[in-house]
Please model this.
Amino acid sequence: MSVRTRFAPSPTGFLHIGGARTALFNQLFARRHGGQYLLRIEDTDKARSTQEAVEQILESLAWLGLSPDEPPVFQSQRAARHAEVARELLARGRAYRAYETPEELAAMRERALAEKRPPRYDGYWRDREPGPAEAGKPFAIRIKAPLEGETVVEDLVQGTVRVKNAELDDMIILRSDGTPTYLHAVVVDDHDMGITHVIRGDDHLTNTFRQCVIYDAMGWRRPHFAHIPLIHGADGAKLSKRHGAVSVLEFREQGFLPEAVCNYLLRLGWGHGDEEIISRERAERLFDIADVGRAAARMDYAKLTHLNGVYLRRADPEALLPEVMRRLARGGLAFGTEKAARVRALLPALQERAKTLAELAESAAFAVTDGAPAPDAKAAALLTPEARARLADLAEFLSALPDWNRADLEHWLRDYAEVKGVTLKEVAQPLRAALTGSTTSPPIDVTLEALGRGEALGRMLAAAEPPPE
RNA sequence: GUCCCGUUCGUCUAGAGGCCUAGGACACCAGCCUUUCACGUUGGCAGCACGGGUUCGAAUCCCGUACGGGACGCCA
Model:
């Protein structure tokens, strides 16, 4: 049987980074085994599910290259089927009608907790026929869990996990309003979708036993299960907003590359020897769910950022250009083709120095301003009266160059420094301050060339003037 | 309260009884490279949670303890 996996988020909010990893593992596992990776939107909770969330999840997955191999299944549209299976279980005597109201059950649970007993349903209606008093009363359908023995799950990640059936109670599979509960809907859908491997967060591990009851009652073959650990924040607690970015789209906004995010997520909880940089293609060949660790991993933004820098350096500058332009334009900088050309010329040198697209755009900003940006404190300190005089002199010297290209510029700059009896650094740093308003930039020859003769000389002369008081 | 799961440098991990005086990566510190910043490079810091077994030999196997996480809903 061909492998089929699925990612099943509920659209009650944005897709967070932990969900993305679950999706990634599902896709990689399916690809590794030549199978399909599907998506099911678990939107049975009408009150909390939103269309915006659905769209955000789809967009997040698409950005990460984790779009499913088949159109997504919407759980809410399968309600009739869920009810049908519940009725079948009832007909087969594997489930029964229970007439307690939600309020009564809540009271029972509270009492149990107060008496320090496990809050389990007592099975009151399990072997009882409804009497005249129940006629017309709403009822929920509960499944009959086995009373003796134990349920064993061979989890691909967690290993053999077993629980005594006495620990299991008869859970509700169909609510009194006819809608299915989560546990029930998942089993029916996974079965109908032909899911062979359920790969999900380990917060579902104990749910698995209860789902097995349904599989067994229907006589359905249980899928293989793999429960992967959750991602935690830097402090070890469940990942949440206060730890920084958690939404996938937030990472995109902050300028992370999808390949870098996936590579990072892959290495979180999984490793292949000492390899750190692993392409998607390679991951599809190497990934084995059995190698995933059993302990929760902590989100490390510093490492993600480093990895992003690696991918950014390797990226094709032309592919990066539109996004950099977009960010510059959004930053309120208007510019035409001439300025765009400067950015393009600078990009290869800039991308070596940036860790994120946000940084990249920021570092390119000086090229599209009108004249040099106002110097920052360090740059201003470099523009001493002496340095300004030198800039004027240097501008005159450079204006005489027959060609304006990087190689010549470097040559003549070195020559100039030697003639003046100063180090190249003493020439380059004030020049950098004049051109970029900053003490850091790509190599000075590259910067000069990218700005173009007119703009570069103009900025030098402007900086040569005494600063306004 | 009951049940389930986990624990190797600060973080992510390699490690499947001798190859481990525990390897790599990020972060951090110091040096080198250098026109700045990055990159690169050299070196450093730092870990098998604890206690018992088993064994000639344990990070690796077993048991307990501690600590962390998760589940116990007519939520998903």
